[in-house]
Amino acid sequence: MHWGKRLAISVAVLLTALTALNAPAASSARPDRVRVDSGWLQGAEAADYRLFQGIPYAAAPVGDLRWRSPQPPANWSGVRDATTPGPRCAQLASPQGNKGSTAEDCLFLNVTVPRGGAARKAVFVWLHGGGFTEEAGSDYDARRLAVSGDVVVVTVNYRLGIFGLLAYPGLAGSGGFALEDQQAALRWVRRNISRFGGDPGNVTLAGESAGGKSVCGHLASPSAAGLFQRVILMSAPCTGTVPAGAMFPGLPAFPQWMPTSQREPDGQRVAADLGCADMTCLRHRLSTEKLLTKHHEFISPTFGNAVLPQDPAAAIAGGTTHEVAVVSGITKNEMSYTATIFYDLVGKPVTGPQYESLLTTAFGEHADRVARRYPLSRFVSPSQAWAAVTTDVVFACPTAKRDKDLGAWSYEFAEPSPPVPGLTFPPGAPHASDLPHLFPGYDERQSAVSQRMIDYWTTFTRTGKPADQRVWPRHPATIALTSAAGNPARVDFTAAHQCAFWDTVAQVRR
Q1: Domain limit, last residue, from 323, 345, 365
Q2: Nearest 10 degrees: Cα torsion 452, 454, 459, 462
Q3: Which residue ranges of the chain lie beneath pLDDT 70?
Q4: How many domains does the chain have?
Q5: Which residues contact 65 (CB under 8 A, 6 or more apart)?
Q6: Nearest to 115 by CA among 53, 32, 179, 172
Q7: What is the model's pTM?
Q8: Which of 406, 413, 429, 464 could lock onto 434 through a cystine, CB 3.0 to 4.6 A?
C-alpha cells in the first residue's frame, strides 16, 4: 500500500478514536446502559459480562431500500431495549435445523463486553457462515470468548441469498450488498465501540465459511481500508476453482469469485421467473416469501462492483490486499460434512462405481490419476474417499497457497468429532466442527481444545500474534489444534493433503 494512503488512513482512524474518547460511554450509575450515535441502549449485565443485542447498525433495507447500499439507522428517543436479538435476515428453514425467517428488517448486531480487565479492550468482529443463505450473528454465544479473552465481541447480521447478493443489470451495488452491510457494521464499530470500552483502532475481523470468504473480500476491498487491523480466516473458500459436483451433487464447476457481469443475466432470468421486468417490480411488488423461492440462486458475492472492484483471489496472489496480520486454517476433514448430508445421511452413501463417476465428472480425463492417488483401498468407504478428494482440492491446497501469499499463521483443526449414526465412515474433523469450541455454551464444561482456540484467537486479537514464535511460527509451519497436552504439534500440511499432486493436475487442467 502506498505510504501516503496508509498515512491518510492512520489519520482517519486517529480522529475517529479521539472523537470516541470524548464521547460519553456507559453510564457509571447504569453500566447496562450505553449511548451510541443513534440513542440510548438498555442491555443486560451479569457478574462478568455485559450483553447488548439487536442493535440496528443500518436502516431497514425494505421498500425502496431493498437492494440498495445500507443507509444510516434512524435515531430513537428514550432508551431502546437491547436485551434480545434482532430478527434473522430472511432465509429458509433447513432439515439440518436452521431457523427460517421472513424478516428483511434485519441489519442488527450484538455486543458482548467482559467486565474488568483492560480499560480499552481489543475488538473481535464475527461474520457468521451458512453459505450466504442462512444463520445469524445471534446464533453464536460470545460470552465465553469475550470473558476468557478479555475482548469485546461483535456478532453481525447481513443480508443473505437473493436479498444480499442479487446481480442485475444497471443495479448500483449489484452482487455486493452483503459485503456492503458488513462494512456498514464495521463503520458502526469504528464510531461506537469505545462507548462499550472497546478500542476502535484494534479490531480483528473474523469469519468462518461464508463469513471467512467475506473477510477475504474485505481484504481486497478499497472501501474496507482502515476498518480492521487483523483478520482470522476459518474454512474460508477464497481462492481456486471448485470442480463439478464437489460442493454438492449436480453443481457445475465454478470459480470462487465471478464477475458481476456474468451473474447479471441470472438476475434477469430470476426476475422474469418471478414475473418482473425491472427493479421497481422487484422492490415493490414481490413479497419476501415469493423472493425466498429463489433464495439459493445467489450464494456468493461477485466482483466488478463498487465494494469489490477486483477478484479477491487475484488480489491475494498479486499482493494487493490490505496489509494486516492473518491467522488462517481449515478443519482436517472439511468435506466429510457434504458427504454426510448429501449422501450417507439421506440413505444413499457413495458406491464404488459412483465414486468413479464423480471423479470423471469433476476431473474429466484426469480422473484416473486422481483415482490412483486416492484409491478406495485406502478408505473405509467410497464416501470417505470422495470427502478426502474434495477436502484437498477445494479447501486444503488453495488455503496453503493463500496462506503463503498472505504470510499467515496457519493451523489445522484436527479434533475428531463423535461418530454420527448412519455415517459409513468416521467423520474426523468436518466443516464447522471447530465452531462449538470457539463459541462454547457459557455454562458448559470447556474442552481443552476450546480453551486453546480461545487463547490463541484472543491473544491474536489483542496483540497481533496468536502465540510465541516457538509455539506457533508463521507459514509454512502449520500447527494442529487438538486437545493433546503440551504445545501443538506441527503438521506437514501440504504433504498430508497431496498439494504437490494437485498442483500438477491444476497445471494440466489450465
Answers
A1: 323
A2: 180
A3: 1-29, 506-510
A4: 2
A5: 59, 71
A6: 32
A7: 0.93
A8: 413
